[in-house]
Each structure stands twice: as C-alpha cells, then as structure tokens.
Amino acid sequence: MKKIEAIIQPHKLEDVKKALTGIGIDGMTISEVRGHGRQKGHKEVYRGMEYQVDLLPKVKVELVVPDTRFEEAVQTILLSARTGKIGDGKIFVSDVREAIRIRNEDRGEGAL
Amino acid sequence: MTRIRLWQAFLMACFVPALLCAQSIPPATNARIAAVESAVKSAQSAGDNAWMLMSAALVLMMTGPGLALFYGGLVRRKNVLSTMMHSYVLMAVITVLWAVVGYSLAFGAGTPFLGDLRYLFLQNVGAAPNPDYAATIPQQTFMVYQLMFAIITPALISGAYAERIKFSAMLLFTVLWALVVYFPMAHMVWGKGGFLNAALGGRIPCLDFAGGTVVHITSGVSALICALYLGKRRGYPTEPMKPHSLTFSFVGACLLWVGWFGFNAGSALAASPLATSAFVATHFGAAAAALGWLLAEWIHNGKPSMLGGISGAVAGLVAITPASGFVKPFPAMLIGFAAGLLCFFMVTAVKRRFGYDDTLDAFGVHGIGGTLGAILTGVFATNQVNDSFKDASGKTMALGWVDGNPGQVLNQLGGVAISWVLAIVASLVILKICDVTIGLRPSAEHEREGLDISMHGEEGYNFET
Fold first, then answer.
1. Cα–Cα distance between B255 and B64 in angstroms, integer?
2. How far apart are alpha carbons B322 and B319 in whole angstroms?
3. Which residue pairs from B308-312 have beta carbons closer than 8 angstroms and sit at least 24 positions apart in sequence?
4. Rounded distance between C-alpha atoms, residue B282 and residue B286, angstroms
5. Residue B77 burial by CB count (10 A; 0-12/13-18/19+): exposed, middle or buried?
6. Which residues of B touch A49 (CB under 8 A)?
7. Secondary element (H or E) of residue A43
C-alpha cells in the first residue's frame, strides 16, 4: 500500500476529487493547510504596516491506495491538479505498513 | 336679480372683516389666538423632540455597535471581545456617572471651567426645556442626547490601549478621565458661561459645533498619552498584528458614518435648516476624506485599500465635526479632503518615524483630524450658514476668516491649546494613579493569551461548537 499526499491549489480540489472518483478511488482525507515551496507570497499593507505573507492557503489531499493502483492515481492527480503555473503544489508518496478498518478490524488492502 | 345679490355678497365679504378689525378684539378671539400660538409651539416642539430623540439613538449606535465593530475588527482575534467590551461597558458606566454628577458638572452654570451641582442626580431635569441650551425640547431630551457624546468620547481612546490593558485599570482610567477631562471640557465649550463658549458668553469664543475639541482632540490626545505611557504591545512591531476581520471594521465604519448625522446634524438641537446644513456638510466632508486617503494610498502603496477608504471617511467625519454647523458644502469637502491626506500621513509616516504603538490610530485620526478641523473651522465658518451669533446691537456677527474675521483662527487655536494641555496633563496624572493603585498592563502570559480569555473568560470564535 502507498500513501499519496498531494498538496494542491484550493481551487483545483473539485477537479481532483472528480477525477479520482472517476477512476474508482473513493476514500480520501482533505485538510486546509498553509505553506509555500518556491512560490513567492504577497505583500499586505494595513495603515502603513507592511506584512510579507509567505504561507499561502493550500489543500492537502491524503489517500492510501493498493500498490497496483498507485501509478494510475498519481497520474490522475497530476493531470487534474495542474495549471502549469508556479504554486501548483507537490505530491509525496510513502509506504504504508498496515491499514485497519475500525468498524470490523479488517486489515490490509481489504480495509481500504 | 342674481347679479345684484352677488355684488352684495362680494361687498359684504370685503368690508365686514375690515369693520370688525376697526373695533376692539373681543376676548374670545384673544383666547383663540393664544390657543393657536400654543398649538404651533407644541407642534414645533414635537418635531424638534422627534429629531433629537432620533439623533440621541444614532449617537449611541456609533459606540455600539459602530465603534465596537470598527475597533473589534482591527485587533487580533484573541482580543476581539475585550476590544468590543471597552466600548460597550462605557455605555453602562458613563450613563450612571452622567446621571449622578456628569450632566450637572458639564451643563450646570457654575464657573467658566466646571458646572455646579444644580442637576445632581438629575434633579430639575424634566419635561420643561432649558432655554439656555435648547428652548423647544424637554431638558431631559437634551440631557440624554449629550450623554451619548460623553459615552463615545472615552470609547474612542480605547483604540490606543486596545490589546494591552487590564479591564479594571481601563474602568478606573475612564471614570477619572470623564470627571477630570470630559465634563470640564464639555462645560468650557458648551456649558452656560463656559470659558470657550462662543454662544453663551465665553472668554475665548471658540466655535465647536459638535465636538472637535470636546470629543476628538481630548480623546485623540489622551490616546497618544496612553500609547506612550503603556508602551508597545508585546511583540510590536516584529510579530504580525494584522486586523483579524476587516469586514467587521467595514460594517462598523459605515454605522459610524450614518450615526454621525445624529452627532453633527443633531447638534443643531432642532429639526431646523441648520440641522440640514450640518447633515450635508458632514456627508460631503466624509466623502471627500475617503477619496483623499484612497488617493494618497494609491499613489504611495500602489493599491487603494478598503481599510484606507473607511479610515479616510472617519478622519473626515472627525474633522468636519466642529465645522459642520458653520460651513458650506464645498469648504466641507475641502476640510474632509485635507483630513484624509493628513491623517494618512500621520498613521503611516509619522507613527513609523516615532515608533509609538497607537494600536488603532486613535491619535492619528481623532487627535490630528480634530485639531485640523478645529483650526479650519476658524477659516471657513460663515454667518451665511449660521446666523445665530448677534452682537450687542442685534447685528449678525462675522464668524470665520471667510467672513472677514481672521482673528477667529486665533480663538480656535486657543480652544485647541486648552484641550491639548488638559488632555495631556490630566491623562498623565490619571494613568499614574491607575498604575500605582491597580496596575495598567496585564501580565506577559495574559497579554500573550489574549485579553478575551485572561480578562473575560471567553472567546470570540468557538469553531468546535
């Protein structure tokens, strides 16, 4: 099993969700996060007080998929989240040792 | 036949009243004339009273929710309730103080500097008008209208100490400040025989229609003293202290703008053409000031901000306050525009240069805007707008420089100087008293935690509920 953490532009969330559902991946967890990579922030001025805002709002999509479906899932996210501009975000992938469904204690890929 | 009768009727109609007039008026007619006069008087009184009660409500609305939202939105979220509370609690505290002694100290005849105790506990303040102040409305209406000014003035100061004062210290400071600064200043400018009262025999006739000196200079200058005495907020200016809700501030500023019609047009103390003129001057001044600030910001920062727009309008409303009952619409716009530019310069360049932490710019907007407005009132005041000032022979007096009375600018400077000195000296003494008795600032942990939790035990935003 692989965990995919995709940090994307907030306005692309609907596209990504639709695309993943389209290939039959239903389980995911979404959180609103702030961060920055190479994208520069912006300047805000309140009555002469200047603030450089570096941490920009992003959405983090987390999903765990069986190894067989991992490439397909990553490709789907890449295509649906891309605008081609700086700030589109990143995808991190890691191995997952175990998955357990709380309701009936199913384990492994069957729990996904 | 018919023709002759018509002629007779016509002649009768013409001559009978003339014949009646030639005789002495019967007592029944006299009584009816008296009844008509009394009905006219009570109709005028009803009209004036309706407007003045409405105005009183508008001025209260400026404090809550107007100022509470305006200031509450500008602080960080952990201090939103405490900042709103600074305004709100004064709606209660000052009201009680006003009933006990405040109204009497401000509007009792007394000395040139302070009223006497004739209205202590509101005795002798009832339905009968007080002709010295407002001859057509119950004195009780006048009393409650003036109370609303006494509430908002110390609330304005809270902009300077927001986010870093103990609630108990804030209460003690405000009560002492009302007693030592506001009541005497209101008496000097508006009270009968007051030292600066232009209408009722003052030594220096300072023109202050709705409170440029009494309200804005006293509160704005005291705000600066508070900011300096208390010192900066912990973390200022290195930690980010962005306004947490400019949408709150926007709604608050718009309520201030509307409420200000009660503040300025209501200061005519009657539903008169003068009230209309003050209403118009107020609105035009605010509009020009909003544009002035936006323009300065656009040129200086490259972007005109919403916060700049509403700050400008408030600055203009402050500056037009003393002038509102004396100036025409175009001078009003000039005063507003100048205030927009000058206050922008104060809260950006000057504040940064000197490094004081006037949290919400109570000094930059009210102190400076009020001072500018008070001085420009001496320039633009004209008897074409307000002809209520008569000399000994009953002739309408020249008011400002535009009327050919440049000396009025000096009178205005006299009023400005007295209000600045009183505000500085009294605020320093009061702050010292609060400091040595109960202490002014919360502990470092309390300030970091936010005053909402540390002073009031509650939070403005509970997302988990």
1. 9
2. 7
3. B308/A47, B308/B344, B310/B70, B310/B249, B310/B250, B310/B253, B310/B254, B311/A47, B311/B253, B311/B343, B311/B344, B311/B347, B311/B361, B311/B365, B312/B340, B312/B343, B312/B344
4. 6
5. middle
6. 237, 241-242
7. strand A42-46
Tracing tokens 């107020």 back to the chain, one arrives at B282
Residues of chain A positioned with their CB less than 8 A from the CB of B357: none
Interface ipTM: 0.78
Comparing CA positions, the residue from B376, B306, B307 lying closest to residue B339 is: B376
Low-confidence ranges of chain A (pLDDT < 50): none
H/E run at residue A95:
strand A89-95
Contact B427, B226 (CB under 8 A): yes
What pLDDT score was predicted for residue B1?
Answer: 47
- Cβ distance of B242 and A45 shorter than 8 Å: no
- Spatial separation of the C-alpha atoms in residues A30 and B458, rounded to whole Å: 30
What does the alpha-carbon distance between residue B370 and residue B375 come to, in Å, rounded to a whole number?
9
Structural domains in chain B, CATH included, are: 42-456 (1.10.3430.10)
pLDDT digits (tens, 9 = 90+) for B411-432: 999 999 999 999 999 999 999 9
Mean pLDDT for the stretch of residues B228-232: 97
Question: What radius of gyration, in Å, describes the C-alpha atoms of chain B?
Answer: 26
Tokens representing A3? Answer: 């965990």
CATH number of the domain at A2-111, please? 3.30.70.120
Taking one residue from A and the other from B, the number of pairs with CB-CB distance under 8 angstroms is 24
Give the C-alpha separation, B97 to B157, whole Å. 18
Query: A51 and chain B: CB distance < 8 Å anywhere?
Result: yes
Mutation target for B interface from A42, A47, A54: give the one with most B CBs within 10 A.
A47
Instruction: Measure in Å the smallest separation between the Cα of B373 and chain A Cα atoms.
Output: 21
In Å, how far is B74's CA from the nearest CA of chain A?
A: 10
Name the phi and psi angles at B203, rounded to 5.
Answer: -70, -50
Q: What is the pLDDT of residue B99?
A: 98
Q: What is the mean pLDDT of residues B62-88?
A: 97
DSSP state string for B56-123: HHHHHHIIIIIIHHHHHHHS-GGGHHHHHHHHHHHHHHHHHHIIIIIHHHHHS--SSSS--STTGGGT
A48 CB within 8 Å of a chain B CB = yes
How sure is the predictor about B137, in pLDDT bands with cuts at 50, 70 and 90?
Answer: very high
Pick the residue of B348, B354, B358 with the most A CBs within 10 A to test the interface with A by mutation. Answer: B348
Percent helix, strand, coil in chain A (nearest 5)? 30, 40, 35
Cβ partners under 8 Å of residue B37, min gap 6 = none
Q: How far apart are CA B22 and CA B28, in angstroms?
A: 16
Inter-chain CB proximity B307 and A48 less than 8 Å: no
Q: Residue B311 and residue A51: Cβ atoms within 8 Å?
A: no
